[in-house]
Write a structure and sequence with these properties.
Blueprint (H helix, E strand, L loop, with lengths): L5 E8 L7 H17 L5 E7 L3 H6 L2 E4 L28 H6 L9 H11 L4 E6 L1 H18 L4 E6 L15 H15 L9 E7 L6 H15 L11 H4 L3 E3 L7 H15 L1 E7 L4 H10 L14 H4 L1 H13 L3 E6 L1 H5 L5 H19 L4 E5 L8 E4 L15 H10 L3
Parallel strand pairs: 1-2, 1-4, 4-5, 5-10, 6-8, 6-9, 7-8
Antiparallel strand pairs: 2-3, 10-11
Length: about 400
């Protein structure tokens, strides 16, 4: 497919926040504006759908004035999304009707297709996780099959979980780990607020332990640069991490309790990094057996806030280690709402530049480093290959070294 002389580009961000949304929008605007300046296209309209797929369904969008294209570099300094997010599944008709996005008798896919056709969209950039991008591909196919139209869809892989197959590194994950480390660098001081203190740092990560592991790694890099003065109770060991619990590894609570109790006896505190997805299936089974309803979102994902993994583990661990006080702190919202760091900005820039080129060539796909191809090239990865739930590789040398250093078997 060749692009028309005047290209109508639309963008949307969707799903949970991640430290990449604003930079993704900024770089996409920059490279489309460059294409216009360089004469690769003759005309350009950039439209933003407000609040993700909600905006597509309700027709809520804004066209960005060419006068401010150059000013959009300032978006790099912002966390969150400059155009708003939502969690909407286009094939969940009941949910879309209940939330007022479509009327009774309408199908969300048809409503969304009609909106893109009415707005004359040639290229749709979706910044989101696997659900967002696979939905966009489905919408593109629907428009082609039902209306004979063509919309090039270029996905930008946003998720702090870093769990999308076959993408080596998703946008925002590195920044979130860095920010989670900063968060705990302050929270760990609470270990000095009370004798025999148990602190559980609950980190986001539904199916993958990547973010918990990466946050622990970055935090330990921070404290290794900290000088501790002999003779005081605050030491490297009291500020260190004593356990890293993630979904990919079995957690033997009684055994870990015995190990951590010896650390509590020695240092007067225990610090645990816990992935919010750890042992979720076990906890849900216990809740449902007790007759409790476990809420799920439009995609069928369990509400982890309701499951409350941190509280589950704190109750069981506190007695085992003899804690006088327990503190559960969640870094998720702090970490995911930051602006992109230099690592993520560089990755986003490369993917946005390649994404605009791919769009002009008429090739749809989700941008990213394709780890199933030799050399992990940045390319428009076929949507049929995109899926979530990629497990964190616990065999990586840096993670094994971390476990060894903290004394966790």
């Amino acid at each position: 497919m060749s692009m028309p002389e005047h290209v109508n580009v639309a963008m949307m961000t969707s799903g949970g926040l991640a430290p990449c949304l604003s930079s993704s929008v900024a770089y996409l605007i920059e490279f489309w504006a460059n294409a216009l300046k360089d004469g690769k296209i003759k005309g350009l309209t950039i439209r933003m759908y407000i609040d993700g797929y909600k905006g597509v369904l309700t027709g809520d969008s804004v066209v960005i004035s060419p006068d401010v294209y150059d000013d959009c570099t300032s978006l790099h300094d912002l966390g969150g999304s400059p155009i708003g997010n939502s969690r909407v599944k286009l094939t969940n008709v009941k949910d879309c009707i209940a939330r007022g996005f479509v009327k009774e008798g309408e199908t969300p896919l048809e409503v969304a297709a009609q909106r893109l056709i009415a707005d004359g969209v040639n290229v749709l950039h979706t910044v989101g996780g696997d659900d967002t991008n696979t939905q966009a591909a489905e919408l593109s196919h629907y428009i082609l099959d039902k209306h004979g139209g063509k919309v090039v869809v270029i996905g930008m892989p946003k998720t702090i979980d870093n769990d999308v197959v076959p993408i080596a590194q998703t946008f925002g994950a590195d920044t979130a780990a860095e920010q989670g480390a900063v968060f705990f660098k302050n929270v760990v001081s609470e270990s000095s607020a009370n004798p025999r203190m148990l602190i559980i740092h609950e980190v986001m990560g539904r199916d993958s332990g990547y973010l918990t592991a990466a946050t622990a790694h970055k935090y330990r890099q921070l404290i290794k640069s900290q000088k501790f003065v002999p003779g005081f109770t605050t030491t490297m060991k009291s500020r260190d991490i004593h356990a890293v619990w993630i979904p990919e590894r079995t957690i033997d609570i009684p055994s870990e309790g015995a190990r951590l109790k010896s650390i509590m006896d020695e240092t007067g505190c225990v610090n645990v990094f816990l992935s919010e997805g750890s042992c979720v299936k076990q906890i849900v089974a216990e809740m449902e057996a007790a007759g409790e309803e476990v809420p799920r979102d439009a995609f069928g994902h369990i509400s982890l806030a309701k499951v409350n993994v941190g509280a589950y583990f704190s109750k069981r661990l506190a007695s085992l280690v003899g804690a006088e006080k327990t503190l559960v702190q969640k870094s998720g919202y702090f970490a995911r709402s930051a602006a992109s760091n230099d690592f993520d900005r560089d990755l986003i820039r490369k993917c946005a530049e390649a994404g605009v080129e791919s769009a002009m060539a008429g090739v749809s796909g989700c941008m990213g480093e394709d780890e199933e191809k030799e050399g992990k090239p940045i390319r428009a990865i076929e949507f049929s290959r995109i899926k979530g739930g990629k497990a964190f590789d616990v065999s990586q040398a840096w993670f094994q070294e971390l476990l060894k250093e903290v004394g966790q078997p």
